[in-house]
Amino acid sequence: MNKNLTWKLALIVGILLAFLLGIFGIPKSFSKQGLLASMTDRIHLGLDLRGGTHLILQVQVNDAVNVDADNALETLKEQLRTKKINYAEITKPDPKNSPDRIVLKGVPPESRSDLLTIVQERLPEYEATPGPENSWVVSMKPQMLAELKNKAVTQAIETIRNRIDQLGVSEPVIQEHGLGQYQILVQLPGIDDPARVKDIMQSTAMLEIKQVLGGPYPSEQAALQDKGGVLPPDAILLPGHAAPGAETEGQAWYLVSRVSAVSGKDLRDAQPSRDQNGQPSVSFTLTGEGGQRFYNFTSAHINDSLGVVLDNKVQEVANIKDSIRDRGEISGGRMNEQQTKDLSMILRSGALPAGVKYLEERTVGPSLGADSIRAGVRAAIIGMVAVLVFMLVYYRGAGINADVALILNLIILLGFMGYFGAVLTLPGIAGVILTVGMGVDSNVLIFERIREELRNGKTPPSAVDQGFSHAWITIVDTHVTTIVSAAILFIFGTGPVRGFATTLTFGLLANLFTAVFVSRVIFDWILTRKQRGEALSI
Amino acid sequence: MEFFRNPSIDFLGKKWYFLAFSLVFSVAGVLSMLFWHGVPWGVDFRGGTLVYVKFSHTPDDIAIRASLDRVGLRNFKIQRYGQASNNELLIDLAVQETSEQALDRGKTQIINALETNAPAGKLDLNNASSFTIKNFLMEKDPLRLGTDADQKYTAQAQAIVNFRDKVQGGVFGSIDQLKGIVDPPVVAALSDGFFVSDFGVRNVEIVGPQVGGQLRKQAFLATVYSLAGMLVYLGFRFEWIYGIAAVVTVFHDTLITVGAFSLTKTDISLTVIAAILTLIGYSNNDTIVVFDRIRENIKLMRREKLSDIVNRSINQTLSRTILTAGLTFLTVLALYLFGGEVLHGFSLALVIGILIGTYSSIAIAAPILVAYQDWRLGRGRRAVAVPSKAK
């Protein structure tokens, strides 16, 4: 019995050391600062304790679908022309809600099989369904549509991560969020300037080069008037800056082609530089394939105008004097040096495949974070001391037992957090406090049972035995149900709530060990040192 | 020391008093939720903008209300936050219905409105980021540094921000307070480009209308799953009636807690929901302890009436119940009193929940068991509260 006991005590000390290691790692020094530093290295503080920004964005996946469908429409038009298939009209009736739906009207029945072949061969992600009166609906296959949307989200996450990396944020969190809503969660600890971060993230940096068909117009109405009240189907109106030196300063409107000659994914590099006037500008280079397409476009449109469009705003318009292969510049002197640096970085990190909309924004100032830590730790210490003192007073000798178990509990809990890299949030600190209260419940259950057995006349060893065995089932029941609750909280909760669920779960697991095993070992050890018939201090 | 030596209180006999007590509080809560204060959903669930602002002096509510009115804001509430000596206000702006506007438009409008004494062209040092301060110093270059400028000015800007946030609690009184923190030429340069307003923004929460609905749904699902899990687990470990009794008990606890939030007009945020789910777990624990003892006693005291067995079980576990509740209550009370304003709603839910949760195991769960048993016996069916298999 004695040898068993020695092994058990050694095991407990071993576990204590192992979890102390989990909290502190190998500390550089044993001073207060050194220990604190080692601890904060391993146990990370959540946003609500450290200060920082929390954002939830929604990727506007329909943008990405629109771009793909626009290209499909152009391909379809071209093919219909080359195969000499007549049609009355080809449009996208509802680009906002059904971005992938292309309606083709007036196709003669004899061209049916040709049309189907075109779609099958040239637009394999699409399918054509016949409609009333010789019309067809060409839309994306549902699986392809879902894939495209999900890809847009994954790509957006990558791009945002690239941009945030370049800002030098430590431990950012960028991940998909929610269920099936195309949302992204971004958490940036220590960032006290959400406006700049949002600018950098939000900029789609959708760089496109489109043919300019008309403009600059002083207003949208003027442009419509010029075109007889209705826009041509393959053109859109985009705002831009007035040409320098024009009478109308400020915003001007341009009529540009819907489809781009070159787009963001053809971009290979972008660097800040100076233009001919010495003003800050951004010069960009295209990929080989993009360059080829650009060359074809410019060769076919000599003496036409092209516009550099950034985020659906015309940045500048230039005349095509010569075919250009792969270089371009965005200037106009409207950016300062920092802005050209930011813009180059955005362009380099890749274009966002679609726009993003902000759904939620929380900014915790560092002053609040510091206050929260202070308050949380203070409450934890007060709560814990109250419980420790009470147990000593109410259960005397056994109270020491409970207190040792409680302190070991805390060490194991913090050690778990250190090993798992769990994040400590303010509700997490509350979870620690709650664990203390609920953990001591196990001890109370056992001790009360032991007292009852002693009252019924059992000897101390027998009472201890009975106490533990009867209380065991109840302890397991209560712990399992609370851990299940915590698991549900973890699944459905975000940040701070998850921190609470984590500390609660770890604390209860630790408690299962300390309340049952450690307490028992300590009792056994005390019993071996007692004489026969000597009372148990409880 | 021992509080309860050998209690033998007739709990079940007092069940009508308990019922009355529960009814009074439940009805009060429900009436408040329906007709008086409604259910005080926090910003997480109804959407909106919350801006927590700390002032360097006692804030003038009326003047602030006027400034916000002037920039065209409607549908806002201003309330004191925390202790009066903190000089903190919470500005609560209702959710903008049109999703076309930028999410943070409300926040920018509020901050602009509060900067009443802003001299033209100067930035607010109390609300500037370390990045903005660094950029300014790089342009002005008061220390005439050459290539080393970026690192040095980043450090200086960080020192300023740390002093403001960690030492001063988020608000400067004047730029002169920086005299010991950064070099004098820097202080002089700062006075050129910055002014010091009388407030600092401590915390911002903006929730769009879409997210609010999502979170409501998630909270609801989490609660339903918890209750279902409980029902299944208890039905499996005991008998179905035990599970149902536990669920009714927990429902009673939640109703009274949410009612209390409605009566005191305390906001229900996400962390409050977490607290409520936790107290569901806690109340369940408590109920299980009593049920375990009842089950054990049923095996031992086969010939006695169920109500006597239940009474005895409650008395036997009374010591443990009161002690545990007391100890947990101690810790949660520490949290409520000392844990700070941010956890206020969370700790209130736990304080109420623990009291009611303990009470309900004795006053609601046990009587339900007996009542059900009596009802079944009254209709001539056999006793079912006795578990059929020895578990």
Structural shape of chain A:
elongated
- Name of the level-1 CATH class of the largest domain in chain B: Mainly Alpha
Greatest interface: A-B, 79 and 81 residues
> Roughly what is the average pLDDT of chain B, rounded to an integer?
84
**What is the total domain count of chain A?**
3
Instruction: Please compute the radius of gyration of chain A using only Cα atoms.
Output: 35 Å
Number of beta-strand segments of chain A = 19
> Secondary-structure element sequence of chain B?
HHEHEEHEHHHEEHHHHH
CATH superfamily of the largest domain in chain A: Multidrug efflux transporter AcrB transmembrane domain
The third-level CATH topology of the largest domain in chain A is Multidrug efflux transporter AcrB transmembrane fold
How is the quaternary structure best described? Answer: heterodimer
Low-confidence stretches of chain A: none
CATH architecture of the largest domain in chain A: Up-down Bundle
Q: Give the helix tally of chain B.
A: 12
Rounded Rg of chain B: 29 Å
Shape of chain B: elongated
Structure report:
The complex is a heterodimer of chains A (about 550) and B (about 400). In chain A, about 55% of the residues lie in helices and about 20% in strands. Chain A has about 550 residues and is an alpha+beta fold. In chain A, strands 9, 10, 11, 12, 15 and 16 form a six-stranded antiparallel beta sheet that branches. Chain A starts with a helix and ends in a 10-residue tail after the last helix. The model of chain A has no long low-confidence stretch (mean pLDDT about 80). Chain B folds into two domains: about 10-45 and about 210-380, Multidrug efflux transporter AcrB transmembrane fold (Up-down Bundle), CATH 1.20.1640.10; about 50-205, no CATH class. Chain B is about 60% helix and about 10% strand. Chain B contains twelve helices and six strands. In chain B, strands 2-3-1-6 form a four-stranded antiparallel beta sheet. In chain B, strands 4-5 form a two-stranded parallel sheet. In chain B, a hairpin with a 7-residue loop joins β2 (about 75-80) and β3 (about 90-95). Chain B is elongated. In chain B, about 45% of the residues are buried. At the A-B interface, α7, β18, α11, α12 and α13 of A face α5, α6, β6, α8 and α10 of B.
